[in-house]
Amino acid sequence: MSVLYDVAGPRARRRHAIAGVLTVVALVLLALGIVWKLGSEGQFSAEKWEVFATPAYLELIGRAILDTLLVAVLSIVLAVVFGVLFGVAKLSDHRPVRVVAWSVVEFFRAVPLLLLIIFIWFWGFDTRVGVIAPLVLGLTLYNGSVLAEVFRAGINAVPQGQVEAAYALGMRKTAVTRMIQLPQAIKIMTPAIISQCVVVLKDTSLGYYILAPGLTTIGREIWREFDNRLATAIVLAAIYIVLNVILSRIGVYVQRRLTESKTVHAVDLESARAGTPGATA
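^ that's the sequence the OP posted. Answer follows.
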C-alpha cells in the first residue's frame, strides 16, 4: 500500500493501460496531422531545405555559430566574475557595500533582459564589436546578478563550524571567504552555475533584435531570402540543442571531477588518521 494513494487493482490497471494506449494513439494521429498539413503547404519541399546543404550558406551558419559561442563564452566568464564579486559584497560587514551590492543585484535581476539589451544598444554602437558589446553587457549584468545570489547562497551553505574554526586560527574575513567559503561554495553551487551557463547560451538568441552577429540573425536573413521560416527554425533549434547538450556534458564532467577530487582528499585524510604506511604521525 502506498502512503499517498491505494495501489490500483486489476480493473484500475486495465483502465490505465487503455487510457495510455489511447493517449499514444491520439498523439501519433496529431503528429501525423501536423506533418500532413505542413507537407500540403510545401514546407518539406527541397527548395526550402536545400539552403542548409549549400556550402556558401553552411559557411555563414558556421561563422554564426562561432559568433554565438564567442558571445556566450564572454558573457559566462564576465557573469561568473560579476556574480562572485557582488555575491561576496552582499555578505560584507560594511553596510554601504551591502546596500550598493543589493541595489545593483536586485535592479538587474528585475529588469527584463531584452529591454536591458535594447537600452544599452541605444547608447550607440556602430561597429561589429560594438553590436556584440550591448548583448554581452546585458547578458553579463542579468545573469551575473542571478549568479550573485547563487554564490551568496553557496557561501552561506558552508558549515559554520569551519568558518568559526578559521576565525579561531586568526584568519581575517577576507581570507576565510577566499580560502574556506568560496571554494566550497563553487562545488556546492556547480549544478546551479551550469544551469545558468545554459541560460546564457540560449539568451544569445536575443541578439536578433539588435542585429548582433549570431545564429538568429543569420537565420532571419535566410528565411527572408528563401521564405522558409519553419525549416530555419527547426535547424536553428537543433543547433542550439546540440550546443546546450555539449555545454551540459562539460558541466557534468567538471562537477564529477570536483566531486572525485573531494572524495579522494577525504580518503587520504582517513588513511592518514588510520596510520597507514607513509602517513605522518
